[in-house]
Amino acid sequence: MRQVNAAGPRALGLITWRAAERLGDLAFGSKLNPLRHLGAIGFFAFWLLAASGTVLYIVLDTSVAGAWRSIHDLANAPLALGVLLRGLHRYAADVMVVAMVLHLLREWLHRHERGVRRFPWLTGVPLLGFVFAIAIGGFWINWDQLGQYSATATAEWVDALPFVSSAMARNFIASSSVSDRLFSLFVFVHIGLPLMLVFALWFHIQRLTRGAVWPPRALAIGLFAMLAALALAAPVTSHAPAALDRVPDTLHLDWIVLFVHPLTAATSPSIVWALVGGAALLLFALPFLPSRLDAPAPAAVVDPANCNGCQRCFADCPYAAITMVPHPNQRIGRTLAVVDADLCVSCGICAGACPSSTPFRSVAQLATGIDMPQLPVNALRQRLRAALESTNAPRPIVVFGCDHGADVARVQADDVCTFSLLCAGQLPPSFVEYALRDGAAAVVVTACRAGGCEFRFGERWTAERLRGEREPHLRESVDADRIAIVFASIGDEAPLAAAIDRLRSIMPSTGAMLSDPHHA
Amino acid sequence: MPDARPTPKLGPAAWAGQALLYGLFAAAIGVFSQWPRYHPIEPGQALIKLSFTRVGKPVGDCRKPSAEEQAKLPPNMRAPEICPRERSPITVQVDVDGRRALERVAAPTGLSKDGAAAVYERLVVPAGERRIAVRLSDDVRARTTPYQREGTVQLAAGQVLVIDFDAEKGGITFQ
User: Fold this and answer.
1) Chain-chain contact of B30 with A91 (C-beta, under 8 angstroms)
2) What is the distance between the alpha carbons of residues A205 and A190, in angstroms, rounded to a whole number?
3) Given Cys at both, which of A9, A28, A404, A482 links A32, Cβ 3.0 to 4.6 Å?
4) pTM recorded for the entire structure
5) Minimal Cβ distance to B29: which of A26, A94, A249
């Protein structure tokens, strides 16, 4: 069933977001559109930060007297390598913050904070706090006026918490109160916390198959080139060394990371704590707030009698909802798929992967190894048969689409039979051949644009199956000229209609193929 | 069948668009990582930080335990005096140029209120010569303010004056 979006700010935001994605698609192509790889870009920035930070830590003198000089002298490194290193580190942090915030926004707009995807949401929200703490702490290590200001402002902010009994800010009231031991705290915040962040990131993607921890190569190269160019064009420099007997006059503040300090100064520490705490509470509560769109979809169901333990569903499930266990009723060595309903997003990709889902089986009631209760493959076969028998067109075009992509109902016509699946990945490739053999002139399979699948891999697996690169694959003997795959996300009905028109123009409406339905 | 999920063949306009979008993103990052300039305090102002931690005096007098009370205690816990555990809150007042600029009462920390009381406050004042008077009381039983200091300081713009408490240096200090 096609998803119905509620009205309101989220629906408006989603429309705006999709428009931005389309704009990005024009320049990058959907496969490389950064807006479709925000999580992976966050990871990429983190890897850059880890690599550049490791080198920076090697040259850093972790002392009050030496820290500023050791970083400042990087500007004198040959070939501007020091400038490059420092710029990469700073700007990658900014990119990571921006990517994470946009990633959070995108997932919320797509209602991904709910249901089965509640876990990555709940493990993702704390990452924001982690990253801000680490990034803010990075400014202290340099121990220049900006570091002094940030460390003091942070301590004053923390002191506002009711359970903090001793004033942390006293550590920064005079130069005599700052010792080299303070750098142990700085190093913990900026290096110890990132080590913990690695585990937190692992938790975040733990329930995903093939979690994207690296963007597509071309995008990674583009981002690196952008950051390197920025590092050289706008070198990151230090302020004057910290001097606690003076308030810095003018600061080149990194507003992306350090905005919290001016906000605190403009309001009060208590107000900012209330804002931060309120935002955190809201983000954590979002998955649990009631919604009329929250009807849980049934999870995939395994039929042990038809599961041969081939592991294709196990390999294709994007959410690691399927595990293989020893088959209870068959010989030793056979395995059986088991679905964890708490992890299943009801995409049906597993049903599309099951070799038993072939409609050519002669059984009256088609039962497959793993199936979706809300749209079983048997029902799909029945509907396909009924449509091909009842259509007035001698050789209709069959369109298999997706509830989350282009609306196939909009291309319905006298000579076009449309079927909307839970996801394009739910379509067993053999249905394409079956439709052609049963009288269809051509078959169009439409999936979301690359990187735009609601269930992560639907368009990718569908394409690979139809191309013969993934099991179960479409047989080579099927006439490729009679098949089209169209990557059309929601709102992309025009290219879908164009693909149908193209097939109409090249497919004879009567003739040999009509009299020979088994032409393929 | 057309190649599935083909790598898009981008035309010159798309490449130009990519360059533009990368450039815009880089510009946004580059600009907001150091602009607009921020001034923690306005020009011509100085900062006074009032900061100290101090354990106040006990809230009550010590007394000698009665013989009955002593008898109830194990021998190793018999003390010559019984003193209240709770400490006095610290009261501090700061006047700048004859006007009350700050007044705080800091409660002792700890579940039994027997810990140190801490105060950390910022006062932004115009730079120049300032007459500063500080009064601090750490004993609720005292009828007078045990610690006072008054002095004239010359504050340069951006200077930080720390008002602290150091018993070894005679009490309230200006740094």
Assistant:
1) yes
2) 23
3) A28
4) 0.91
5) A94
